[in-house]
Write a structure and sequence with these properties.
The protein is of the alpha/beta class. The protein contains seven helices and seven strands, in the order αβββαβαβαβαβαα. The chain is globular, with a radius of gyration of 16 Å.
Length: about 180
């Protein structure tokens, strides 16, 4: 029981430490992980991720941006497509954006991006998401032979709210534990 409590505390701490660390540096791509979209517009959480990716792009850290995310049940829009459209509206050249629009889970996104990177003979990326999400994303990329540098969206509504930050971190602990057990979430 004591060992279990220690393991949970260690995982919580690891997730929170990663959430507070921006590792952005030159890489082969900037990968923006999808979040909710509403009728073709990014949710506030998704917009924070996209705006952060725009800041990284302005620093010229990578030659390509990769948007991720499927339809989530929306018959008309995908997260990856909404993200691509948003980036273009903000002035990013369409030719600089690749979109992965089929994934419904984080592991699916990581796997699809890893395949895109390997096809391009690339092996590094800057992963942009909410801070709580980045610890697991880095683990998944590492397992697929990709080096991911985490860069949390600084204006995330989830990370800004102490209650939401704690709830999402606790949820991430569970999902990370399940991933270690072999479930691809």
């Amino acid at each position: 029981m004591l060992a279990g409590a220690w393991a949970e505390r260690s995982l919580y701490r690891a997730i929170r430490l990663q959430a507070g660390r921006d590792e952005a540096r030159n890489a082969d791509s900037i990968v923006i992980f999808g979040a909710a979209e509403y009728n073709g517009a990014p949710s506030p959480v998704f917009k924070a991720r996209l705006d952060h990716a725009l800041e990284l792009d302005e620093r010229d850290l990578a030659p390509v941006l990769i948007t991720t995310g499927g339809s989530g049940g929306d018959a008309h829009f995908t997260e990856g497509g909404v993200a691509r459209d948003y980036l273009i509206q903000q002035g990013v050249a369409e030719a600089k954006i690749l979109s992965e629009t089929r994934s419904e889970m984080t592991y699916d996104s990581v796997q699809a991006v890893a395949q895109i990177l390997k096809q391009r003979h690339a092996s590094t990326c800057i992963a942009v998401s909410d801070g709580f999400h980045l610890y697991r994303i880095k683990l998944m990329f590492r397992a697929l032979g990709i080096t991911a540098y985490a860069s949390p969206a600084p204006d995330s509504p989830i990370e800004d709210d102490p209650t939401l930050r704690t709830l999402y971190t606790l949820r991430e602990m569970g999902v990370t534990s399940l991933w270690h057990l072999g479930l691809k979430l």
